[in-house]
Amino acid sequence: MKRNILILVVLTILIVAGCSLVPxxxxxxxxxxxxxxxxxxxxxxxxxxADAAAIAQARGLxxxxxxxxxxxxxxxxxxxxxxxxASGGHSxxxxxxxxxxxxxxxxxxxxxxxxxxxxxxGAGNEVLDEGNxxxxxxxxxxxxxxxxxxxxxxYDGQFVFINDKANSRVATIDLRDFETKQIVKNPVAINDxxxxxVTPNTEYVIEGGQYAAPLGWEYAALDDxxxxxxxxxxxxxxxxxxxxxxxxxxxxxELPPYxxxxxxxxxxxxxxxxxxxxxxxxxxxxxxxxxxPPFEAGASQGDTDFMHLINLVxxxxxxxxxxxxxxxxxxxxxxQTAIDENILYLTPEPKSPHGVDVTPDGEFLVVSGKLxxxxxVYSFDKMMATIEAKKWDTDDYGxxxxxxxxxKEAQVEVGLGPLHTQFDNQGYAxxxxxxDSAVARWSLGGSFSDLHPEEPWQLVSKISVHxxxxxxxxxxxxxxxxxxxxxxxxxxxxxxxxxxxxxxLPQNFQLIDIANTGDNMQLLYDMPIGIGEPHYAQMIKAxxxxxxxxxxxxxxxPSTQSVSPNAVHPGEEKVVRNxxxxxxxxTAVRSHFTPEHVEIKQGDHVTWHIxxxxxxxxxxxxxxxxGYNINLSIEPGEYISFEFDAxxxxxxxxxxxxFCSALHLEMTGYLLIEPGPDSSAMIQK
Length: 685
Ligand code: K7E
Ligand code: CUA
What we know:
The chain is mainly beta. 12% of the residues lie in helices and 38% in strands. The protein folds into two domains: 82-544, 7 Propeller (Methylamine Dehydrogenase, Chain H), CATH 2.130.10.10; 556-684, Cupredoxins -  blue copper proteins (Immunoglobulin-like). The longest helix is centred in the first third of the chain and has 15 residues, at 2-16. It starts with a helix and ends with a helix.
């Protein structure tokens, strides 16, 4: 709590020391001993330098600005309390950010090659290939929603998953080494959106669909939309022991072509159920060029769309009983089976909804209609009672529809363009308002009523953000026990917040203090994200993670998380030839590779094994071969192998691409590829 005291001291000083500090136009860097000396009278013994007060005055900082700065400032060597795992949007990667400092710690290579990590340049190629689609290399992704693995509904810090909306793929990242271990391509759907979300013990990773299409990437004319186009939700079984999704024990459920959007897993009382919103119950098929209403009008004609209630426990039983079809060899429970087996129900949701968020107690579900200033709160108990009473209508496909009035708990007017909702530990919910460019805090009812003084289901306060917020996240906000503390607004537009960098602007993450600020939330920090459009992120308490400092043993293969049988130990380095097959066994240590000469012939096929035999923290070596598109990051203890065809003769200096020691430049060697008898032919080609 030293920090709070410091904040108080600074505040007091600023107020006492003449905080007639009127906000001014931002100026250039403050001249430390320039004109603004008047306000810089600092009481002796406060610990605050006269310079600090002078800087505050020169920049026109208000006391709030100064506290905001102090709340995010982490002196060198001091670690953040939280880690944010953010989608990297169209970069196809995942960002790791410390909070509250908002320092970028890492960009994890996921769906897209990432040279610093060697990802896709000799390492990780097998994982990237798992994401190939019908043999085509797809090396980008539109990542939307990361999901941290959970145990008992709480983040456990072991794994994180993320989806690729564009190509319906899901990646698994192991948080022992922060590396992508797996990419699965959905065999039934060509795109997705409601992914990834996990069930409370990460039994399943949920991948909901989006734009309806014939299952299995088949062709069908749009005239046959109602009969042949379908939605989908896929449940990927997670094998925690193996650290992989297990396609052999995974299945999907066929859904109506209503454009399912986001899903959330039930928790506590609602555990075993999954909820997905949808936004095209109108089944609009577009065609503005033919005089049809454009999608934006067609899909928002009706006053309501449908939330999908999915009984996952029941679905799993039906799957295990073998009551499914297969599409591209993947099990799919048919829509008719889902209806017959009481797996699927619908309930209306107003108006052009986006997302559904389950409250921490699992009792309520919050849906925002993008064109409705309210959030609608549903009661899980009421849903179950209505289903129990078999009180429903049916839609065109025969799916039971529970009446909104039978399952609704409350509606709260929050503002324009509500999208996503997160929760804190004080009984409040926070909803992003895209059109208002604001975050609304509102009071929850039910068991949360005791936590706050307000009436339940009331708007409490708002804070402006900059600008056009999409998702928001709170600390541990998707768990059964959110932390409160911080909220991050993930803003789509930055406009005037940063120096101009041309017409393509970064997104803007804004850190907001939602604790210890009374009724008001306080904006603390703007973080530009210059890599893509991150949609969602999750924030986890940093002490829940226990990543490795170095790989556990020398010769560790991160792709199997075990020592490789091909690990190279000191004294065992060699080059082995078997016909045209050449194997190089190499070690790396400060500051040399062994061997330093590798002499082969054009036309050889080369398999190269390298082990970094270092045990020192941060003693990473790189390894690049020019012209052959090879660049590795070999962390302490790590073993990597890669292969290539030596089709281009010449002299190639391989070298270490990490500045690892004073003699790093000497960490190099010669790869000599002697021209073969047929070399002229090969060069011409
Ligand atoms: Cu609202 Cu993909 Cu969750 Cu974008 S989604 S914001
Ligand atoms: Cu090893 Cu530079």
